[in-house]
C-alpha cells in the first residue's frame, strides 16, 4: 500500500517537473538521464533563482506599501490659487459682564463673593498649559462653587454661556473685508479656551456651537445678501491681497497657521496690545486627484482631514493630533484632562478641578508644549507622540510684523493680514509606484529568474488544485 502511494506521488511530481513552464524543472524529472551531480547542480540553480525571485518580489511589495509616494515640485505658478494664512485670535477678556450679572442675580451671593467668582472664572477661562498657576482663588472659592453647584465637569459649558459670541454681534469692525467682500469669523474651542478663527477650512468642525450645541452657527442678519467666504485664495494676478480681524476691546493672543490647520498652543506671538499688520507669503503642498482613493494611509504617510483616528476630534490635522497627545499625557500624569477639551465622547475622561490644574500642570510645561520628558536631566528625550503630516497643507512665512497704533480709529485692536508675494513653486504628493507597477515588477522578476509568465503562475495553481484532485480520484 505504501509502495503504491509513493509510486503515485512520484508519478505526479515527475509529470509536473517534465511539463512545467518553470525553466530548469525539466532537468529534475525523468525526461533526461542525468548524473546525480547534474541534478544537484540544477537544483541549486533553481533554489537560487527562487530565492532571488522571492527576495526582489518582497522588496517590490515593501516599496509599494511604504515607498510609493514622492513629493515633487511644480513650477507653473501662473495657474495657482494659493490659500491665504489663517489666524486664530484669543481675547484676554473672556466673560461678558452683563451676561455674568444676569447669571449671578439668580443666586444669593454677597458683593465680594460675586467679584471673587468673576475673577476665578475669568482666570479659568484664560488658563492653558502655560499659565494654570495663575488661576485666582481664595479660601472661600470652594464654598462659592459648592453653593452654585459648579463642578469641574461644568467649567466648559459655564464659561461658554457667560461668554459673548462676538461673531454674531452687528459690529462693523468684526467683519473681515477682502476685496469689499466678507470673510467668515467663527468662535472655536481651542487649547486656549474660546477663540476666533478666520480663513480656515476646519472652522465649522471646531466651532463651539457645533461641539456644544450640535448646530452650525449661522451668519448674522447683517450679512444677508452679502458674499461671505469661508476661505480666500489668491494668485499672482490679484496683487496685494489683504483682510482684517478687528475690534477686540482687550489685549489678544494671536496664532497664525495654515488654512488647513488649527492653532498650536506652543506657537504664539504672545500678548498683543495694538493692532498688528502681518505681511506674509505661503506655499502649498497638495496631492493628485486620486491619491486618497488609490493609496492607504501607511503608503502615503499622511492623513486627509476626513481620515481622523482621534477620539476627541472628528477631523484630523497634525496639530489636533498633538492636542490629543497632550490630553492623553495629562490623563496619564494627572488623572484628568483640562476643561477646554470637548469630552462628549464614547469614553469621557474626568475633568480636572482647578486644584489639579494649579498643582499638577505648572511644573510640566515643557512636556506639554514641546513633548520633552522633564525627568531626563542629562540626555533630552522626546515624549512619545507620533502624528502624521497633513496630506494637504500650506507653509506660512511672516515677512514682517509691525504695530499699526490705530486703536482710536479701529475701536479696538486686532490683526491685518497682507499678502504681496506669491509662491513660484509648490509641492505635490503623487504615487509613482502603483499596484500595476508592482505586478509588472513581480512578473519581470519571475520572468528573469524563472522564465515564468502569468500563464505559468496559473499553470502551477491549476496543477496543484484541479489536476491534483483529478489525479487522486483516478
The tally of beta strands, per DSSP, is 18
| Mean pLDDT over the residues | 84
Number of separate helices: 17
Q: Which structural class is indicated by helix and strand composition?
A: alpha+beta
Protein name: CLUMA_CG015089, isoform A
Main location: membrane
GO molecular function, one term: ligand-gated sodium channel activity
Transmembrane segments: 438-464
How is the topology of this model organized?
Elements: H1 2-19, H2 36-66, E1 69-74, E2 82-83, E3 86-91, H3 97-104, H4 111-125, H5 141-147, H6 155-161, E4 176-178, E5 181-183, E6 185-190, E7 193-198, H7 203-206, H8 208-213, E8 228-229, E9 233-234, E10 241-248, E11 252-257, E12 271-272, E13 276-287, H9 291-294, H10 297-300, E14 302-303, H11 318-334, H12 354-360, H13 365-370, E15 389-390, E16 393-403, H14 407-410, E17 413-419, E18 426-431, H15 435-450, H16 454-463, H17 466-473
Parallel strand pairs: 5-8, 13-17, 13-18, 14-15
Antiparallel strand pairs: 1-18, 2-9, 3-7, 3-11, 4-5, 6-7, 10-17, 11-12, 13-16
